[in-house]
Design brief:
Length: about 350
């Protein structure tokens, strides 16, 4: 059934995209090729939007030759643009359309009574194009319609109020200047109003599923006085291992709804080492790399809301693991009280 639904969404989404970008397909193969190009274009623009970059900076980045860096293909350039855009002017138009769509306020979801999720994804080190597909699959498995957001300025209390679950896989830093390589020049993006909106959302009964580096949404150097949001979340970022480090994950509580059906597993990726803050958390998972063991997953409540944290998410390879997919779906359902 999932395959049928996915194909239906594929073709339903294709027609407006083709019309929007003015691409008339010629035959089935061209149809699929153009759709693939438009999805890649969307993801490449999203990789710029999630870093807080202007349309001008985004276009400059995407006009440069395509390159990759240790498996992160969403840095600069768009492969295939010479085939589907006649010239730089037409390509600039396509980028502007995608940018406008990705920075627009999310449309109000239908009033059908279904609990829905808003997923805030993507940062300098975690391109949205790699994060979105595995989260889409997991939320589809959980039966939770999900809207994806890359523009942090659209994370507001009114928009949050349309959803029952907030999923976050990103940190709190933007890189608006593509030429700036120093972390000290990056910009912390979350305002006090946004921080309070998330806290109020959870305490009023909303669910929060925090992934990977979401406990770095606020400055983590402040060990003695963590930001209010990190205290609500229950942990803060401390450090991580190498990008391709192997680690072993052990289930601590197999009786919890989040770990239901999950066995111990191995993964390769950035081994995150969160610093626990909450004393009331239920520790669900721990991970070990190079002889060092740390917390990898937990659950807690705050007011009327439920919070789950999973340390995985640096690469699509990790998010696609069957046990991680199961954890994502289980955690989303648990955060919504559907356990």
């Amino acid at each position: 059934m999932f395959v049928v639904q996915a194909l239906a969404r594929f073709f339903a989404a294709l027609t407006p995209l083709v019309v929007m970008f003015g691409c008339a397909p010629r035959g089935r193969d061209d149809f699929a090729a153009r759709f693939g190009y438009l999805i890649l274009l969307r993801d490449q623009v999203a990789a710029q939007v999630c870093q807080g970059r202007s349309l001008e900076a985004t276009l400059a980045q995407l006009l440069t030759p395509h390159t990759e860096d240790y498996g992160r293909p969403y840095l600069v350039g768009v492969p295939g643009r010479e085939k589907f855009a006649r010239d730089d002017r037409e390509f600039a138009r396509d980028v502007a359309v995608a940018y406008r769509v990705l920075t627009a306020e999310p449309a109000a979801p239908p009033n059908d009574g279904k609990p829905r999720a808003l997923a805030l994804i993507g940062d300098h080190y975690h391109p949205p194009g790699l994060i979105r597909p595995p989260i889409e699959v997991a939320m589809d498995d959980a039966g939770i319609p999900t809207e994806f957001l890359c523009d942090v300025t659209k994370l507001t209390a009114p928009i949050l109020g349309r959803y029952r679950l907030l999923i976050i896989l990103r940190d709190g830093v933007n890189w608006p200047d593509p030429d700036e390589k120093s972390f000290s020049k990056a910009k912390w993006w979350m305002t006090k109003e946004q921080e309070q909106a998330i806290i109020a959302f959870v305490r009023a009964g909303g669910g929060l599923l925090a992934l990977h580096n979401a406990n770095a949404l606020k400055p983590w150097a402040e060990k003695q006085d963590p930001a209010p949001l990190l205290r609500v979340l229950g942990s803060q970022y401390d450090s991580h291992g190498a990008p391709r480090e192997g680690y072993r994950v052990r289930v601590l509580r197999s009786d919890h709804p989040i770990t239901r059906g999950v066995a111990d597993f191995t993964a390769t990726g950035e081994h995150h080492r969160p610093r626990p803050l909450a004393t009331d958390m239920v520790r669900l998972l721990e991970s070990t790399a190079e002889g060092e063991t740390c917390l990898a997953g937990y659950a807690r409540t705050e007011g009327k809301g439920r919070i789950a944290y999973l340390a995985f998410g640096h690469t699509r390879e990790v998010l696609d693991l069957p046990d991680v997919q199961r954890l994502l779906a289980n955690a989303a359902r648990w955060c919504l009280g559907k356990d």
